[in-house]
Design a protein that fits this description.
Blueprint: E1 2-6, E2 15-21, E3 26-30, E4 47-51, E5 67-70, E6 86-89, E7 91-92, E8 100-102, E9 110-112, E10 116-121, H1 128-136, H2 138-145, E11 148-150, E12 155-157, H3 159-163, E13 166-168, H4 172-211, E14 223-225, H5 226-229, E15 230-234, E16 250-254, E17 270-273, E18 290-293, E19 298-299, E20 302-303, E21 305-307, E22 315-317, E23 321-326, H6 332-340, H7 342-348, H8 360-364, E24 367-369, H9 373-411
Parallel strand pairs: 4-9, 16-22
Antiparallel strand pairs: 1-2, 2-13, 3-10, 4-5, 6-8, 6-10, 7-12, 11-12, 14-24, 15-23, 16-17, 18-21, 18-23, 19-20
Helix pairs in contact: 4-9
Length: about 425
C-alpha cells in the first residue's frame, strides 16, 4: 500500500488517501456458463435471469431482451446479483473488455453469463457508486483493456492484473460525496442522450410509416443492391508513418475513431499533406455522404454511421471506413435510415463471440427498398427539419461527455 496525496481538504490542509489494490476492496465473481439449448422461457418456474454482454451498457443495464436458464446452473449463491453490484465485460472484443454496468434493484433473481463477471464492493470499505465511476473513468478503462489477453477474435480480462490496479480510497463519506457529484454529471449527459434518442425515434417512426419495415417489407416495395442507388467505396490506405501535424498544408483524415453514432468526433484526428493527394481525389468526402465505420461498427450507443455535414474542411476517407454516396442527393437520408435499420444488422449478422467487421462486399450486397421518389423527397424534407436541432443536441452531448470526463479525472486525482 502506498500513500496518495490530495492537494488539500476544505480547510486548505493537505491530506493523504491510501492507494489500495482494488482486489482488496471487492469480490470478483465469474459468471455462469450455459449452452444455447439450456435457455428457457424468461421468469419461468425454477429459472433465473442471465445478464449477457448485450445487457451490459454504459448508461445502465439494458433490460429489454432477457433470457433465463435453470437455476441449478448457478453453482454458488454468491453468483446471484445484488443491488450495488457491477457487471463487467470480461471476454469480448478488445475495446469492450472492461465495459461495466451498475446493478440497481431488479425485482427478480438474476445472475451473470459467461462473458461477464460480477464485481461486488465490500461493505464499509468502498461505496458502490464510487467504485463504478472509478471503473468507468477513461484512465481505468484504458488500464483494464491492457489487463486483457488479446486473441484473434476475442480478449479475456486478466483477473489477477485487474485486482492489482490501484484505487485511491478516501473515507466513505468522501467517496459518497465524489460519487454524488459524478452522478449529477451522468444525469446531465443522460438527459442530452435521451433528447437525441427521442429525435431518432421520431425519424424511425416516420421512416416505418412511409416505407414499412425493411425486414418484412409489408408494402411489397421492390429491392435492389445498395450499389444501384449509390456509389460505395472503402477508404484509402494512408500510411500512419506519413501523418503530419495540422496546418495550412494539411487535409483531415476520417478514420473509424472519428465516425460515431450519428456524429463525427474530431478530438483524435490524423492529417495528410496536401501535396500527396495526386490520384486519390475520389476519396475526398462530400456533404451528404453516408460514412460507415467497418471495424467494430456496433457499440453500446448503436451503429457507427453518420452523414457528412455541409461546410466542413477537406476530409479524406481512410481504409476500413466506407463511403456511401447517393446517386441522387435527396436519397441521403433514406439510405442512412436504411443502414440504421434492423435489416442491415440482420444482413451483417454480428455476434457476441466474434469481433464484428463489415466487408466491402457485404456492404455492397445489402438490399434496400426502392420506394416512389416523391415519398423519398417527403422523407428528406422531414429529416431536414429535425437535423438542425439534432446536430445541436449532439454537440451538447459531446460537451457534456467531455465535462464528465474532466470531472472524473479530477475526482480520482484528488482535485474535486
Amino acid at each position: 500500500m502506498g500513500a496518495w496525496m490530495r492537494r488539500n481538504d476544505a480547510g486548505g490542509n493537505a491530506v493523504s488517501w491510501p492507494l489500495v489494490d482494488v482486489g482488496d476492496a471487492i469480490q470478483f465473481i465469474r459468471g455462469i456458463t450455459f449452452k444455447p439449448d439450456q435457455v428457457v422461457e424468461p421468469f419461468s418456474e425454477g429459472s433465473i435471469v442471465v445478464m449477457r454482454t448485450k445487457n451490459v451498457q454504459i448508461a445502465e443495464l439494458a433490460l429489454d431482451d432477457l433470457i433465463s436458464v435453470p437455476k441449478e446452473l448457478m453453482k454458488r449463491d454468491e453468483q446471484k446479483l445484488k443491488n450495488g453490484d457491477l457487471l463487467i465485460s470480461s471476454a469480448n472484443s478488445w475495446e469492450l473488455v472492461g465495459k461495466s454496468s451498475f446493478v440497481g434493484e431488479l425485482g427478480y433473481e438474476a445472475t451473470a453469463g459467461g462473458f461477464i463477471s460480477i464485481v461486488r464492493p465490500k461493505k464499509n470499505i468502498i461505496d458502490a457508486r464510487y467504485l463504478y465511476h472509478w471503473v468507468m473513468s477513461p484512465k481505468i478503462q484504458h488500464d483494464i483493456r491492457h489487463c486483457g489477453r488479446q486473441t484473434t477474435n476475442i480478449s479475456n480480462l486478466d483477473v489477477g492484473r485487474f485486482k492489482e490496479l490501484k484505487i485511491p480510497l478516501p473515507p466513505l463519506d468522501e467517496q459518497k460525496r465524489i460519487a454524488a457529484i459524478l452522478d449529477k454529471a451522468v444525469s446531465v449527459r443522460r438527459k442530452r442522450q435521451q433528447a437525441i434518442d427521442l429525435a431518432d425515434d421520431f425519424l424511425r417512426s416516420v421512416f416505418l410509416d412511409m416505407f414499412g419495415d425493411p425486414v418484412t417489407n409489408p408494402k411489397g416495395l421492390p429491392q435492389v443492391k445498395l450499389t444501384e442507388l449509390s456509389d460505395v467505396i472503402s477508404g484509402y490506405a494512408f500510411k500512419s508513418a506519413e501523418y503530419i501535424d495540422d496546418g495550412e498544408d494539411s487535409v483531415r483524415l476520417c478514420r473509424g475513431a472519428n465516425t460515431l453514432t450519428g456524429y463525427f468526433d474530431w478530438k483524435d484526428t490524423a492529417y495528410w499533406n496536401k501535396e500527396k493527394l495526386a490520384g486519390i481525389q475520389n476519396y475526398k468526402i462530400k456533404s451528404g455522404d453516408v460514412i460507415l465505420a467497418m471495424d467494430r461498427p456496433w457499440i453500446s450507443s448503436g451503429l457507427k454511421v453518420c452523414v457528412f455535414p455541409e461546410n466542413e474542411r477537406d476530409t479524406y476517407l481512410v481504409q476500413r471506413v466506407a463511403r456511401i454516396r447517393p446517386k441522387k442527393p435527396k436519397y441521403t437520408d433514406f439510405l442512412y435510415a436504411s443502414i440504421l435499420s434492423k435489416a442491415f444488422e440482420k444482413h451483417c449478422c454480428p455476434t457476441e463471440t466474434t469481433v464484428p467487421h463489415i466487408s466491402p462486399v457485404e456492404l455492397k450486397n445489402f438490399n434496400v427498398l426502392v420506394p416512389d421518389e416523391k415519398l423519398v423527397d417527403k422523407y428528406h424534407d422531414a429529416v431536414v427539419k429535425v437535423r438542425k436541432s439534432k446536430l445541436s443536441m449532439q454537440k451538447s452531448l459531446v460537451e457534456a461527455s467531455n465535462a464528465f470526463n474532466s470531472l472524473s479525472q479530477k475526482a480520482f486525482a484528488g482535485e474535486l
